[in-house]
Amino acid sequence: MIGQPSRAVPLQANPLVATSSLDEFAQAIRPIFGVLNLGLTGGQKGFRATANFRKLEHSGLYYGHYDGRLNVSIPHASFIAQGLTIGGSVDYSSGSGSAILRKDELPFPVFERSRIKLDFSEGHRHLAFCMRPDAVLSKYNAMLGIGGDRLLNLNHAAPPPAAQLNRIPPPAAGPA
Fold it and tell me: How far is 162 from 99, CA to CA, in rounded Å?
């Protein structure tokens, strides 16, 4: 009998934490995401979190997998991020917008100083590309030729309505 194919785990060469303790999980991810509040819908029983993180020069790639309904609140983001749901769903809200995101849906980006609330479904898996705001602004300024005392500022505009969220199209069918 042929078994189920194993699912590759993103960033598995860069483990951050694998735990059934909410406190241990919070301690491990706090250096990446800053001040945050974590909770569980339905209690600690059956909770397990796995996180991998690859630090880059001014950014990092994060992978999270949560068994248990994890709730995350970040009152004042200290980063810029773009996430991607790869399994399960998340009820996502930031500032003046919210949406329920499912597999292969991209939320609106998280900007520095945003208030973020995430309610992850059981078995949720996601990737996030996190960037330091000063590094992003420095790159934009360099690309635009802005220097000296004139610096570009990020506009913290409202996110687009849920209907305008990006969906990743399925891969094109190959030859039959």
Answer: 5
Distance CA 157, CA 39 (A): 29
Alpha-carbon distance of 156 to 123, in angstroms, equals: 32
The CATH number assigned to the domain holding 69 equals 2.60.120.10
Measured CA to CA, the distance from residue 5 to residue 129 in angstroms comes to 27
- Structural domain that includes position 71: 15-154
Query: Which tens digits make up the pLDDT trace of 9-37?
Result: 999 999 999 999 999 999 999 999 988 99
Q: How far apart are CA 141 and CA 37, in angstroms?
A: 34
Taking the C-alpha atoms of residue 55 and residue 9, their distance in angstroms, rounded to an integer, is: 17
Q: Please tell me whether residue 60 adopts helix, strand or coil conformation.
A: strand
Q: Cβ(165)–Cβ(82) under 8 Å?
A: no
Distances (CA, A) of 107 to 118, 144, 155, 160, 161: 11, 26, 17, 9, 10
Give me the number of domains the chain comprises. 1
- CA distances (Å), origin 37, targets 4, 25, 136: 36, 11, 26
pTM above 0.85, yes or no: no
